[in-house]
Design goal:
Strand order of the largest sheet: 2-1-3-12-4-13
CATH architecture of the largest domain: 3-Layer(aba) Sandwich
Number of strands: 13
Structural class: alpha/beta
CATH topology of the largest domain: D-Maltodextrin-Binding Protein, domain 2
Shape: globular
Helix content: 40-55%
Strand content: 15-25%
Largest sheet: 6 strands, mixed
Length: 337
């Protein structure tokens, strides 16, 4: 009996030690700063929310997170640099999941969001059709009429091919048959400034990128690319584009932080815990979303992949049908909706 009791005690001790070791192995304690490559210019939608998320995560990780802006080729340059960095967990990237998911379709980057990346989503954004205040366009119908009257002449600022703004104007083109003159910039913020300064007549970048200029009456918002009204803090209501294009369908454009697969598992386990404990409960991100016309929508793992897919699937086919894709989406695992 004594021998049996002793055996049980030894087994319990070993089990306790084993659990302790497993817990220690699952916790990543970074011993140097983490770099997040933002593959777009400073001040844009990716830059904005990534800086807030990084600041929120630093205390939980016990380490500084450094943001490095590396714009170029619609975000593919900075993303590739994150892919090529050592798989030690210290180099991440960020952006719209739809961009990451369609680089391969567009022939920009040979990567697959589902097999090559761990994704951590924070907010969902919507695009706004905004115009320079000196233009004569007072309603979206005015702008639509101008597109039709002057095909290929109305200038539209976006952050480049595959950006949210480019997706937005291409969706309008799909539903209405209009043509436009595409003027590209190295990020959403520069695109918005381009519209404000008069370099372009319109922009279709995200609400979060136009919000301050709208509040400052430097951009006139004509429509939000949604089927519901956007109530923007400090401005008021922006009508939905479905008032003019009833069958217009736009999903939620999710943004987040992306970590290449192949890094140590304890990095992923730790980041998932921090995302769940910190980002899911972040009042700063909630306040940012509310003030700038975004939706607070954190997720990770399969849920994040499923949310992202619901948006990038039709986007990939939009590019293909517009002749802007290098390969058919179904050849890279994205079936037709």
């Amino acid at each position: 009996m004594k021998r049996f009791a002793s055996t049980i005690i030894v087994l319990l001790i070993l089990l306790t030690v084993g659990v302790g070791v497993a817990t220690a192995q699952a916790t990543w304690k970074p011993n140097k700063p983490i770099t997040i490559i933002v593959p777009w210019g400073a001040g844009g939608s990716t830059d904005q929310v990534t800086r807030i998320c990084a600041a929120e995560m630093e205390a939980a990780l016990g380490q500084k997170i450094v943001i490095v802006n590396q714009p170029g080729a619609s975000g593919s340059v900075g993303t590739k640099n994150a892919m090529d960095a050592p798989k030690d967990g210290y180099t991440w990237t960020a952006g719209a999941a739809a961009d990451l998911a369609t680089y391969k379709v567009q022939g920009m980057l040979d990567t697959d969001i589902r097999t090559d990346w761990n994704i951590y989503l924070s907010v969902a954004n919507v695009s706004v059709v905004g115009v320079n205040v000196a233009t004569p366009y007072k309603t979206f119908q005015d702008l639509l009429d101008a597109f039709k009257k002057k095909p290929g002449q109305i200038t539209v600022a976006t952050a480049g091919q595959s950006s949210a703004g480019h997706i937005g104007i291409e969706m309008i083109r799909k539903y209405t048959g209009i043509d436009y003159k595409h003027i590209t910039y190295d990020g959403g913020a520069p695109a918005v400034i381009g519209c404000v300064s008069g370099e372009t007549q319109a922009t279709t970048q995200l609400a979060v990128e136009q919000a301050n200029m709208i509040r400052g009456k430097a951009i006139r918002p004509l429509a939000v690319m949604s089927n519901t009204t956007l109530n923007l803090d400090g401005y008021g209501e922006i009508p939905p584009i479905t008032n003019w294009i009833p069958d217009f369908k736009a999903g939620s454009n999710y943004f987040g932080i992306f970590i290449p697969k192949g890094v140590p598992q304890n990095v992923i386990d730790t980041v998932e815990k921090v995302w769940k404990d910190v980002i899911f409960n972040s009042q700063k991100i909630k306040d940012y979303a509310k003030a700038n016309g975004a939706m607070f929508a954190p997720s990770y793992g399969k849920e994040a992949q499923d949310r992202a897919f619901a948006y990038y699937q039709p986007v990939a086919w939009l590019y293909y049908e517009a002749g802007k894709a290098k390969v058919s989406p179904d050849t890279v695992g994205i079936p037709r909706p």
